[in-house]
Amino acid sequence: MDIIDYFCGMKRFRTITIISLTAIAVMVVANIVYLHSLYNSIKEQSVLTATEALRRADILEIISRMKGTSFGEDDSFLRLTLMIQGEKSADGAYEYPNLLENIDKTMSEYFHFIASGTPDMRPRDFEAVERIYHKELGNLGLMPQNVIVTDTLSGCPDLEKYWEISVNNSEGKPILIGYISPLSGYIFNRMAGIVVTSAVVLILMSFLIWYLLHWVGKLRSIEQMKEDFTHNMTHELKTPVAVAYSAADSMLRYYDQSDEQRNKRLLTIIMQRLNYLSGMIENILSMSMERFRTMQLNIEKVRLKPIVDDVAAMIEMKAGKPVRIETDIKDGAEVSTDPLHFGNIISNLLDNAVKYSGDAVEIRIIGDSHGLRVSDNGIGIAKENLPHIFDKFYRVTEGDRYEVGGYGLGLYYVRRIVEMHGWSIAVASEEHKGTTFTIKFADYEKR
Asked: Which of 15, 108, 332, 410 lies in disulfide reach of 348, CB 3.0 to 4.6 Å?
């Protein structure tokens, strides 16, 4: 991918992400406004329903007091026919708006008129009104915790704890006032479906956005790792190519058949650089997941000390600075392993210890048939970098570590080979004090 296309793509992604997040935020705000409007609408409807229930409770209480009076002796009186008060329109016709409300109002006014003209009726029983009102509310699905019914002359309770419901006469003056506990539970039950689904959608969207941004961040890290790998590989490849090229150019320009020693030295340099390149290419190919899946280990029982000593001697020989490697391996220690890959594991660990150290380094290797420990007194690894050092292509880029040759595959290779053996590897490090790698062996055949 061209660097310009990459940055253009990231800019488009950032723009689309900002627009999408803004749209989602607007939708969330709109949904909250809609839910608030729905809450108020259901509350208004609940108040109207409670008002109708209070009017019916008022009528039923009056009817109950009519028993034993002159009007209550004849049950046919209670089967009255209501005359609905209509409204006259501009063209002289009668209209009946709010028919059900007018029926309740007409009935209430008629019964109050009869009650006021009946001297032998008992006084109003507010406790009875409250009982009837509570029952009527329950029949309508409204279940307030407390119900209080008073006349207009009584003091009102704390309105912060109650909803006020009033029954008015034809002139709009209240004739009975009821107070009920807020019906928030009832309203939220009515809204439960849309609230739950909205919350679930919001949670899912939030999770998806987080998941998307999380993976985009990982992809950007992978892209950065790929660029670092390309840079490092270019640097690593240029050095041996340049050396081999110089040696070959020297032989071509200044070839002297009689100077056999010089010719052998130059050819040896060329062969060493080509071998180095070949090994580098092989290491890169071995990092392929497909190669790891198909690769077979040639397991055999080998003595631990000779392998470690041979690798340690090779590292000391090729190091470009003073290196002291001390080994403490039990003579009889053996391990079931692939000798080639096991040697590569030791070589990678020692090579890293030499690379990431000061002007001189001391390395100590302790091992037996149960495990191996490689410790150094190098520059160490920062705590935040430790979880990533076994990742493919990962390299610490802070300080002067970036200048050290490598392409972030050595420790990845070590971890994969260790896992293929059924072993485990752990690392402990402290900056400016050194690093320790510990490999615990397991029986390969019992994995």
From this structure: 410
